[in-house]
Amino acid sequence: MAIEASSEKTREPRIRLGMVGGGAGAFIGAVHRIAARIDDQYDLIAGALSSTPDKAVQSGRDLGLDPSRTYSSYREMAIREAKLKNGIEAVSIVTPNHVHYDAAKEFLKRGIHVICDKPLTSNLADARKLKKVADENGALFVLTHNYTGYPMVRQAREMIANGELGDIRVVQAEYPQDWLTEAVEQTGQKQAAWRTDPAQSGVGGSTGDIGTHAYNLASFITGLELDSLAADLDSFVPGRRLDDNAHVMLRFKAKGSEKPAKGMLWCSQVAPGHENGLMVRVYGTKGGLEWTQKDPNYLWYTPFGEPKRLITRAGAGAGAAAGRVSRVPSGHPEGYLEAFATIYTEAAHAINARKKGKEVDKAVVYPTVDDGVKGVAFVEACVASSKKNGAWVKL
């Protein structure tokens, strides 16, 4: 088990954590809290858990927070916590997209580290401004593209970086779901309502919600940078204001003398039979890799001209990058919550190194504000391309 709590004599003090959003009834808030506790690196001690004061108070009470550390607004929380001797060191932002920019800015400018849900912001202008705030204030910014925390995703990344696939030629990423096949946002379903509302979600629907995950994962695994794209977006459900399906052609930037890799990305929330079908395939001059989230402990590797091989988490053939983020022996499944926890633990390593004035270990990897800017740029490029009947748009 590579990721584990240190002994009480040697372990770092738990990081004092606050949370914005994530109150009663919020799915992702509970996920973040579980992820923060799995490796015992954080103590949740403060929160502005809802924009509704009564709900914020009740949510704080339900979580056992000190009433004096339960706030009715994130700005009030940022101001007071920054002045307290034992104030929060980091904050989790788990709100709808349109709140990310203002909330993160309040904490960053006071030197409080930010762990924020994706996408970074609801528009590219705010994303770029937020990067500037983060850069100027020196606080860490961690974006929870949690799928990058899976051990076998780290394995795939390591193999490609080591040249085991040769020059990358083709990248395919897909993320189909079916939960928005009908207009559930019109029934009062909270998660659907804000995700299909341009004022809260931004210009992208499925592209912003899950397309950014597929795009980020493809980039993370391959190390490639996107050059341009051509997108065809649809809102199949009558009356829906944002896309619920997207087909995107990708052209990546060349690496050295290599011919630029090409790719395809499909994201959909109207694909019956798919609950959460995230998958990435990568093909190079020497072989191919395939990983799917429904079997996250397995990675298929095919050297060209040889039989297909199955690499298992913590099993034979798994490398150091996968090993350092594995918690249990081979044959015991690790999943979504553990992958999410990996991002929190990588953030903890970085925060603790910062407190000591040390460089972060190069093995520590997590999505940053730069990845967030790229994700929002991807969404806006998809929308711009689709409006031009699928014309190629440069990023």
TrEMBL record:
InterPro entries: Gfo/Idh/MocA-like_OxRdtase_N, Gfo/Idh/MocA_oxidoreduct, GFO_IDH_MocA-like_dom, NAD(P)-bd_dom_sf. GO terms for molecular function: nucleotide binding. Residues 15-143 form the Gfo/Idh/MocA-like oxidoreductase N-terminal domain. Residues 153-290 form the GFO/IDH/MocA-like oxidoreductase domain. Gene3D superfamilies: Dihydrodipicolinate Reductase, domain 2, NAD(P)-binding Rossmann-like Domain. This is Gfo/Idh/MocA family oxidoreductase. The lineage of its organism: Bacteria, Pseudomonadati, Pseudomonadota, Alphaproteobacteria, Hyphomicrobiales.
